[in-house]
Amino acid sequence: MTKNLQQQIQEFYDASSGLWEEIWGEHMHHGYYGRTGNYKMDRRQAQIDLIEELLLWAGFKDADNKPQNIIDVGCGIGGSTLYLAQKFGSKATGISLSPVQVSRATARTKSAGLENQVQFQVADALEMPFADHSFDLVWSLESGEHMPDKTKFLQECYRVLQPGGKLILATWCHRETTSLAGELTAEEVKHLQEIYRVYCLPYVISLSEYRAIALECGFQNLRADDWSMAVAPFWDVVIDSAFTPQAVVGLIKAGWQTIEAALSLNLMSQGYNRGLIRFGLICATK
């Protein structure tokens, strides 16, 4: 990962993660609002439901096939990592570029009494500091969009996965360009570039491009799906809660970059509404 981008991502999450946890909780990802996005529910429950729905979709339906050793790539403050470790009674490791996130995730692990089961470390997902075949589940929930080399990212996921192990990837994508809508328009490209700038993303690709890369890396039994409708309401919920007195005070303390990200939440909401932003899923085995 290029140093400049790596530093941008680190600084963004160092500054914003504390506020996110204070206002929105430990899960730094979308929520699930039913397949067509019409469920009305608490936002935090929707985020837990997303984890559970992903596990069901990926085939973790009973205790017989539960993972034993999980890597959470782009772990935030450990929301998913701890949830999965507690659910399955498994070992889990989370990595992030943000020392602030890793420190907070480690503190939360100690509070939960899971120090012997769960660990966190600062690491680059494009050069993971783990031996080949280390994990039987690679979990990546909304981190792929930050990767400047999507092929290298999936190659690393494949490398650290045990034979027979499973990848669950959920990531921001742009719409397909092979349909009647054609290539991205100049206006769509401009919209995406604003999202990239605000949220420290190098670029996003379509779900079909992710599928092709995963297959080239050697993944098998691949399934892909688009859950854009199911998660799109999340952004409107976040916008509604972003400008309460508590949130405004927190934004001021967090600094301009976090303020700009909050002011730009509508970029994602509008992106979903126009069909430009998509929420893509990949599940595959090694």
Largest sheet: 7 strands, mixed
Number of helices: 12
User: Which regions contain 5 or more consecutive residues with pLDDT less than 50?
Assistant: none
Radius of gyration: 18 Å
Strand content: 15-25%
Enumerate the strands of the largest sheet in spatial order, edge to edge or round the barrel.
Answer: 3-2-1-4-5-7-6
CATH architecture: 3-Layer(aba) Sandwich
CATH superfamily: Vaccinia Virus protein VP39
Helix content: 40-55%
Instruction: Predict the CATH topology.
Output: Rossmann fold
Oligomer: single chain
Which outline best applies?
Answer: globular
Return the string of H and E elements.
Answer: HHEHEHEEHEHHEHHHHHE
- The tally of strands reads 7
Mean pLDDT: 91
CATH class: Alpha Beta
User: From the helix content, strand content and strand pairing, which structural class follows?
Assistant: alpha/beta
Number of domains: 1
From the N-terminal CA to the C-terminal CA, the straight-line distance is 24 Å
What does this entry look like structurally?
With 286 residues, this protein is of the alpha/beta class. It has one domain: 3-Layer(aba) Sandwich (Rossmann fold). The protein is 48% helix and 19% strand. The chain has 12 helices and 7 strands. Helix 1 packs antiparallel against helix 10 and helix 5 crosses helix 7. It is globular, with a radius of gyration of 18 Å. Its EC number is 2.1.1.95. This is Tocopherol O-methyltransferase. Pfam families: Methyltransf_11. It is an enzyme of class 2 (transferase).
